[in-house]
Amino acid sequence: MSSSSLNIDIPKPANYIKEVMVIVQSASKNPTLSKYIRTTDLKPYQTNTHDPYATAYLKVNDLPLTFVIGDGKEYHSEKVTYLNQPLKQNSSYIVFLRFFESQDSYYSTEWSNDVKTLAKPPAPVILKIISTGLKTYTISWFQPPLPDQQTVVMRYHAIYRVSNGPSETLNVSKEMTSIVIDVEFDKQYTFEIQVVTEAERSDVTSESWFSHSAPLEPAKKTDDGYTVKLRKPQGVRKIKTVALVLLLSKSSNFPAPEELNVQKSPPADDKTDNVAFIASEFNITEFQSDTVEISLRESRSSGRRKKRAVEVYTLAPNATYRTAQLDTDESGNRIWSYWSESFTFLKAGDNGGDDNKGGGTDNVDNGDPDKRNDGGNGEGSPFAAVGASVGVAVIIVASILAVIFFRRRTNKRSKDKEIVLNENYYEMRGIDSGDGEDNVVPDDDLPNGNNDMIYSNGIGDIDEKAHPPVPMEEFEHYVSELKVDSNYEFQREYDDLPKNTRTSWEVAKRPFNKKKNRYGNIATYDHCRVVLSGDENKDYINASYIDGIKSNSYIATQGPTKLTVNDMWRMVWEQHSYSIVMVTSLVELNRPKCEKYWPDKGSKKYGDIEVTLMKTEEFAYHVTHTLQLKKDGEEREVRHYYFHSWPDHGVPKYPTQLLAFRRHYRTHHMEQSGPIVVHCSAGVGRTGVFLAIDTILDKFEKGVINSIDVFGQVCAMRERRMHMVQTLEQYIFVHEAILETILCGMNEVDSIKLEKEIEILAEINACGMTGFQKKFKRLGEVSTNLSPDECIAGSLDENYHKNRNKDVLPAENNRVPLQYVYGVENSDYINAVFVNGYLGRNYFIATQSPLPNTINDFWRLVHSQKSSTIVLLNNVKDRTSFPKFWPTTRGQPTQYDRLTVQLDSETESNGIRTRQFILSSYPDLTDGQVVNIFHYTKWPDHRVPANGSDVIALTSLVENSRMNHGQGPIIVACSDGAGRTGTYIAISNLLERMKIEQAMDVFQAIKIIRETRPQFVENAVLATFSTAFGSEPEPVAGTHVDPRWRNA
């Protein structure tokens, strides 16, 4: 039941009844008795519902147990079409049924009791849209009370889009009253939201706004102040005035510009926090160039202050400011830039009451640990910095002592107990602590107190007997026990990890070394730090040796800063390291995480080492750079493995991708080289995760161990580098990665051994199963399934008819959204998902063969994704549920909604029919794109093709098409977009890997794509086919399915 429909139960008719009519009328006190109403008087549609009308005519064989009155569908008798018209909301109706043996022979039920449709729920009220970051906005809303009949909010349906751009559907649960969205600078955005109850959805609430423009350039220091440049506004908006706004802010927790009440002059009390005022204002006509430079100086008497002078006297001594540009248009609308980096105006020589006037020091703080002043650049007075820092230092020391005292008194067990100090610090400074990795204090706050007091876990020596190694065959059960009661035992075991080995780190505390630490509480222990050549002023780098199978097998280090990039390459050269593993992005959540330390192309000098980029190989989840290092005439080759798929928050959803990355790096790593360099940002969280996994698996693969000791491995790493494996979530992830490897086994096969491996797998074992069937059974056990909450759009009633197979729905995190058609609800939905290829992310789109009602959507998909290549693996026939979805007459354009498609050519070879089309958004095919459809019709559903070489030839045609006509995703379709589609994608990925690495792993290839769509490669026959023909580097004439495994 909804606001426009009612559900009625239909009683079982007599055996002789052939048809049933449903009659509806608005509720009335004295309706005409149903038996006196003539059938000929019942209209098939009625605007005046106070008169009875027929809303449906049903064959008894089509009779449902429950019928929905008002569903908007049409029902047909031999001569009349009946419209089951939607009902009015919050209105009462009565219903009766008429059962026909023939037109002249029938009986009727009595009128029902009054039944009332629901009132439509009120739409959410958008409260505010404010910027909460450099490129983020928070949208909050309020949900008015629901009507009496509706008590449950199921969820919210929300979208946002940039002007003239695609829309994005947001996953908004019923508990949420706000959401954070990402934006670009200076764009118009629209946000739409409606509430969905158990029976109905509200109207849409919509609001548009312009995002703020980019921050002004950082203020530049002069002898007696700072200079700031305003920008001349660009675009179509009619700007009237441009103002420089200063925010007097003592903390990093500053408000959004649009929330401020901007004053016309500086506050009288410069100790006031988060007060904004206009420093200078211009009429747009006063801009003679693209910028206006304003000089900010120390405040003087109001009589000397000029509102529009180039020199503005507004700065108060020892005050911290941020700048923003405020444009006001002719209608009074405000357009802000985001806040710039902060700067503090300190009078030169200011030290405990010294009134000597002069220039300030440059103290910049934008929440970025890398950009905080460490006093080591030689500018300004060191005494001024000391004087200004005394208060802060006292607060920090007091906070540290309070935390230590509290932790020792309570001995509290906490999820992230080892970083309580860091979280408190960030909370005090108003800085988001991020994703749990690198939750560390900035580099100018390295504690100078007793090491043991700060970093000790307070539990004494490690009791390794408390968590002994687990035999390999018991590890699955062991992990399951740790996960019971919301990971309770995992939490206990993680809390038992040591926080420090009570060793010294004196070298890291030296003043000239502190600035080389990216984060203040991630330093190196003296006994295992990597020592660079040179004197003590040059030998420090934040890097630690970590043991593997051999002593010092690895080096764990931080992501280089601008100051330490050269040191990074010195270390790689001096340690003879030939492999670098990077598990962080350069920027995450708008924060720098690592300085780029390799050239994009050509060569670049880093100190006395020249680094040349020789080759870049891009894959779905990582990039490999082959680099040549040159120093003093000697040349070396280093491979840089960059895993760019670690999410900004937490850990990867599944370990499969990271394990595939590890196998890739292990394949190319030279065992005889120096230590493997591994880094993230701080060099402890993700670095610790990767090292724990790689070390344990390396020992396992080489037969060194027959039991698993994750706890012991992390303990050993923490004895050499603090905070390794930084959160409980990371600790659990290490176990899951090891467990997946144990369960899935070693499935990688070199090309030269593949034929023999296929023969072995085709043999039937004592249980009556082939090796293929056994592996496929295991694959099903370790593959994941999607929950209904992950397939929101596909499960909506409005979209259900767009799905062929109701069990094959796209997950929200990888479904392909169509461009939203304004006013057409759910017009962004099509049953299609992005699938990663071996050669890149979103390399494929998997979708179903279009339904009659989704043909227009399919061409919208092709156009919006700029796809040049389509693979179709099922037969089609007009006037069926698998219609032809393309024009069949050459040179004759056909309209598909707003798109025009024209058949250009058609050929056939090896059972593959190739059709080339021109697709354009213009009727005259202006700016048309070439689209090739490769139609292979000899692949039966749920089975395999008789001639495997056809599929190999098909992959070759497809890759050539993508290479020649566009780099958009390859669209692969079959009946439901799962079985044959997944098998084709798996084979394509296996072939590409075979070409590059001369090895393949069918098990992992299928498991990885199943993370996108669990129904991919639906049976062992298709998996077997992937194995055999994923091994063929080129088409082989006359290759047929081997009878030994055709029915595997």
From TrEMBL:
> In the Enzyme Commission scheme, what number(s) does this protein have?
3.1.3.48
Cellular location of this protein?
Membrane
Tell me where it mainly resides: membrane
Q: How does it sit in the membrane?
A: Single-pass membrane protein
Q: Which GO terms describe its cellular component?
A: membrane
Name the reaction it catalyses.
O-phospho-L-tyrosyl-[protein] + H2O = L-tyrosyl-[protein] + phosphate
List UniProt keywords, sorted A-Z: Hydrolase, Membrane, Protein phosphatase, Receptor, Signal
Q: Name one GO molecular function term.
A: protein tyrosine phosphatase activity
**What is one Pfam family matched by this protein?**
Y_phosphatase
Sequence similarity: Belongs to the protein-tyrosine phosphatase family.
Protein known as: protein-tyrosine-phosphatase
Can you name the source organism?
Paramuricea clavata (Red gorgonian)
